[in-house]
Design goal:
The chain is an alpha+beta fold. It contains four helices and 13 strands. It has helices spanning 3-20, 118-124, 168-175, 206-209; strands at residues 56-60, 63-66, 84-85, 102-106, 114-117, 127-135, 158-167, 183-187, 203-205, 214-220, 223-224, 234-237, 251-255. The strands form three sheets. The chain has a five-stranded mixed sheet. Strands 6, 7, 10, 11 and 12 form a five-stranded antiparallel sheet that branches. The longest helix has 18 residues, at 3-20. It is globular.
């Protein structure tokens, strides 16, 4: 993205943030604890050093951080508040151009593979805005007893944003789905920390992909999706672990078996069948 484009987006965010600023208090002293005005620069946060002091950073490589629980009080979580969760290397966001970004539908169980630009998604399919909750599979892990390995999230590894985009089901119907479709796999740029191998690629059953809670989104809370939350395009699956809502998504594969992408095999994101210590 060019510097002029980033400056334009920041200016647009400034105007929107001012118009949407809550006015239920007159003096700053009366502002509820931990509630701060929207940081309009949150669109272009790209590393741990960009995060405000109210975030607790669990690790920087990959970047994982969470806000105070009290900041999740609003029904719709402001865009500068959600937890940040990456599994691997983040892309160079400054080189990502939404005008040339594409989303590919492919796989064994799709009748016709197709590639769409964001502009084509916007023009060809009906737009939907939905309030959907994303929750990290490790949310509240620091409360486990006995403790377990992994990022020690407090209870703030969850948020609810308004996502705007198109129904994944509409796009899949446009390509045609074979009767043997079982799963979809999500693809993007969350690369392994070594820089080698495939990016994390999680998936959901085909039935989940065909519901109204599955979006291909380009906006979060009425603005372009912030860098750290999946700019410029994200698949969003409400009611599913947030790891399947692929950030910086490049496409979907329609599978005739349970998707076997990175982080799909046990024990990753698996629940024991029987009680364990």
């Amino acid at each position: 993205m060019s510097l002029d484009r980033r400056q334009f987006l920041k200016a647009a965010l400034s105007a929107t943030a001012v118009s949407a600023m809550p006015v239920s208090w007159v003096f700053a002293a009366n502002r509820p604890e931990d509630l701060v005005p929207l940081d309009i620069n949150s669109l272009t946060w790209a590393k741990a050093e960009d995060l405000p002091d109210y975030y607790t950073v669990l690790n920087t490589n990959p970047l994982n951080a969470y806000p105070p629980e009290s900041m999740l009080a609003p029904a719709i979580t402001p865009s500068d508040v959600p937890f940040v969760r990456w599994n691997g290397l983040m892309p160079d966001f400054t080189t990502m151009d939404p005008d040339t970004w594409t989303f590919e539908v492919k796989g064994e169980s799709v009748k016709q593979s197709k590639t769409y630009t964001i502009a084509e998604l916007k023009s060809k399919f009906k737009h939907h805005t939905q309030s959907l909750v994303l929750e990290c599979g490790g949310n509240s892990r620091n409360n486990f007893y006995p403790s377990t390995k992994g990022n020690q999230w407090n209870n703030a590894g969850v948020y609810c944003s308004q996502w705007t985009g198109v129904l994944l089901s509409d796009v899949l119907k446009d390509c045609g789905i074979k009767d043997d479709a079982v799963y979809v796999g999500n693809h993007g740029f969350d690369k392994h920390l070594s820089g080698k191998g495939e990016a994390i690629s999680r998936g959901v059953p085909i039935k989940a992909a065909m519901t109204d809670n599955a979006l291909i989104a380009w906006e979060m809370n009425g603005e372009p999706i912030p860098y750290l939350h999946g700019y410029p395009l994200r698949t969003v699956f409400g009611g599913r672990p947030a790891s399947v809502s692929q950030k910086c998504t490049t496409g979907i594969s329609v599978r005739n078996k349970v998707h076997d992408g990175h982080k799909m095999a046990a024990p990753a994101y698996q629940v024991p069948k029987h009680p364990i210590a």
